[in-house]
Design a protein that fits this description.
The chain has seven helices and seven strands. With 280 residues, the chain is mostly helical. A hairpin with a 4-residue loop joins strand 1 and strand 2. It starts with a helix and ends with a strand. This is Pyrin.
Length: 280
């Protein structure tokens, strides 16, 4: 009461010189004694303003504590969010560097395989060239022999009888001994290498098609479905079932080539990079 008297008390706007010492809970406003007796406040819950103020101060204190608790919780959540996002950024950077490293290794691997394949193709081309040269030499010798015999027979045919009959038996025998040239036959070594070439070329085409389709499909899913969601896959699938060891193709023995193919299937060039990610 003393605290209220020490300050000028608010005057009632309706009743002059009347101090608002009461509080009407129904209307939620301070009133004076005359207002309390008026018809407007009949049956209302009216009590001293000091008593009402004390209770409302307690309610204010409770609300302050509640709001301060909410603010503290919000600050803790913001701190946790900043910590979590910082962790995500760190993981993202690590995954980015890891993927870049893997892709660079994959590029180098493809370049190495291309160089091996080109070298093997050049070697195969040289082998085919040597076979063609050898066969051409044989055909040239055969043709030269035929030209020689044809020339001798044409000369004999135009000679006088006594000269024609000299060594006629030897000449005819030589002509009869000439056989039909053997048909062209692809050497087994070349045939085997060509078979391996078609086989491995088909393998490369199918593997690259599978790789391209898988890459495109996974990246479309990555960019479309998870681009803005809470699930972040920070990885990439690189599927290349197994690499071709083209040096194995240059082996000439069939068993060696078979071993080379087995090496291709199980060798260290097999590449399968898994999908790395996390869910926030």
């Amino acid at each position: 009461m003393a605290s209220l008297i020490s300050k000028p008390l608010p005057q009632c706007e309706r009743h002059m010189n009347q101090v608002q010492l009461l509080f009407c809970e129904d209307h939620g406003e301070p009133i004076c004694l005359i207002c309390r007796l008026s018809q407007e406040h009949q049956g209302h819950w009216v009590r001293p303003i000091e008593e009402a103020a004390l209770e409302y101060k307690e309610q204010i204190q409770k609300q302050l504590e509640h709001l301060k608790g909410l603010r503290k919780s919000g600050e803790e959540q913001r701190s946790q969010g900043e910590k979590t996002t910082a962790d995500f950024l760190k993981k993202t950077e690590i995954q980015k560097q890891r993927i870049q490293c893997q892709l660079e290794q994959f590029y180098r691997f493809l370049e190495e395989q291309e160089q091996l394949f080109v070298a093997w193709m050049e070697e195969l081309g040289q082998t085919i060239g040597q076979v063609r040269e050898t066969h051409g030499t044989q055909v040239s010798k055969y043709t030269a022999l035929l030209d020689e015999l044809i020339g001798e027979l044409e000369t004999k045919q135009c000679q006088p009888e006594w000269e024609l009959m000299q060594d006629i038996g030897v000449t005819l025998h030589r002509a009869k001994m000439v056989t039909v040239p053997e048909p062209w036959a692809t050497p087994p070594e070349v045939k085997e290498k060509l078979h391996l070439l078609y086989q491995k070329s088909e393998f490369v085409e199918k593997s690259m098609k599978h790789f391209s389709e898988t890459w495109r499909s996974e990246m479309e899913t990555f960019n479309g479905e998870y681009g803005g969601g809470s699930m972040c896959w920070l990885g990439v699938i690189v599927i290349f079932p197994y690499a071709v060891d083209f040096w194995a193709l240059s082996r000439r023995e069939k068993n060696t080539c078979n071993k080379g193919r087995r090496k291709v299937m199980t060798g260290p060039h097999k590449l399968c990079v898994g999908l790395v990610g996390w869910v926030s």
